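Look at one record.

>
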Amino acid sequence: IYVNLPGVGNCQEEDIALDFTERTLCLTIKNYVSAEAKEKADVEKMVVDTAPEEEKGEDETKGEDRCLAFGQLFGDIENATFRKKPDKVIITLKKKEQKAWSKVIA
């Protein structure tokens, strides 16, 4: 399963979790900052502002949590893994039975 998320490669490994059972799957990405938001924040840092600086709380490019969940897969799985790439996460499922699935969810 290919999950396209521009800039996900910048996330820390510990911020990505894949939980699964025989029939369910949940990919959670914490502190995700899209490539577009990161680029905008980088440009704003380059702009010189002569007005008095107001106190700022947390980093303005604070990430958000993203979740992709499948409540009932088409068939049983015995394992699930993920690989993080620069702009996507690839989820690999190992089916219990080697039969064709017509779709991912039941």
